[in-house]
Design a protein that fits this description.
By secondary structure, the chain is of the alpha/beta class. The chain has ten helices and ten strands. The chain has one domain: TIM Barrel (Alpha-Beta Barrel), CATH 3.20.20.80. Strands 1-2-4-6-7-8-9-10 form an eight-stranded parallel β-barrel, surrounded by five helices. Strand 9, helix 8 and strand 10 form a beta-alpha-beta unit.
Length: about 300
């Protein structure tokens, strides 16, 4: 190897480390009994993050309630079967989070003290403070996802703060709607404590893809990446047209040719979040875009 060749390789490695933004794929699992097991989802090799959905009741002194559709019955304790599967996924390098909220349920935070109480519950039941088996067995989850779409928008910034105070290793993600700022999650996201923000660019006509037009989506993406302090910002998409009744589905070839090359120019590019595992299982959407989502920014060679 000549000195010039060695120098060129060194410069290319340096350039890659400074300008490349590899993406990841996240999905939600737990809302359809026909989507297969958690372990099966992890065995696909598609996902880097899986959000177990949802904790549909919490706050205001309520007893928290987990809903995993047809997968198990939390009150009778049958969801503990997923403890081993969670650990299995984590052993594959996949982060597994518990998602709070969703579009149905009964949840809200009534005060800072209430936020602290919920943070304590999450820490001792699902996270690093767990000392006995919880609703999901003996597994310790990697973090908490905020998918807040109902009720009050207050005190979620406090909840995020209290969770990170438990341990900086608690991974926090949020799934706001694409109109900026998100009504429910705006204050929480503004704390800068979230490791990943997967913005829902679907069921939101003003800022989603529509009929070959990527302009509204790209404009909204630029607003989010310009204003939000977060480790990563990801593009939240439906994995099938049926997954988003109000639109936003992007055909895979359009995503690959017209969207990903633009959004991965951002230093905050985190990849794609797919709603949700059931539809991805039906369509194979995640598998079809995986290599393109992961692709780093193209190196530019100059003499």
């Amino acid at each position: 190897m000549t000195c010039n060749t060695a120098l060129l390789i060194s410069l290319l490695v340096l350039a890659l480390s400074q300008t490349s933004h590899a993406g990841t794929i996240a999905t939600y699992w737990g809302q359809n009994g026909f989507e297969g097991t958690l372990q099966e989802a992890c065995d696909t090799g598609i996902y880097d993050y899986i959000n177990i959905a949802f904790l549909i009741k919490f706050g205001g002194g309520q007893t928290p309630e987990l809903n995993l559709a047809g997968h198990c019955d939390p009150p009778s304790g049958t969801c503990v079967v997923f403890g081993e599967q969670i650990t299995y996924c984590q052993d594959q390098g996949i982060k597994v989070l518990l998602s709070l909220g969703g579009s149905a349920g009964n949840y809200s935070l009534t005060s800072q003290d209430d936020a602290q109480t919920v943070a304590d519950y999450l820490w001792t039941t699902f996270l690093g403070g767990r000392t006995s088996a919880g609703p999901l067995g003996d597994a310790t989850l990697d973090g908490i996802d905020f998918d807040i779409e109902l009720g009050s928008n207050l005190y979620y910034d406090d909840l995020a703060t209290y969770l990170k105070a438990k341990s900086q290793s608690v991974y926090l993600s949020a799934a706001p709607q694409c109109p900026y700022p998100d009504y429910y999650m705006g204050d929480a996201i503004a704390t800068g404590l979230f490791d990943n923000v997967w913005v829902q660019f679907y069921n939101n006509p003003p800022c989603q893809y529509s009929s070959g037009n990527v302009g509204n989506l790209i404009s909204s993406w630029n607003i989010w990446t310009s204003n939000v302090v977060a480790g990563n910002i990801s593009l939240g998409l439906p994995a099938a047209e049926a997954a988003a009744p109000s639109g936003g589905y992007i055909p895979a070839d359009t995503l690959i040719s017209d969207v990903l090359p633009v959004i991965n120019e951002s230093s905050k590019y985190g990849g794609v979040m797919l709603w949700y595992r059931y539809y991805d299982l039906l369509t194979g959407y995640g598998a079809s875009i995986k290599s393109y989502v992961l692709r780093d920014k193209k190196l530019v060679y100059s003499s």
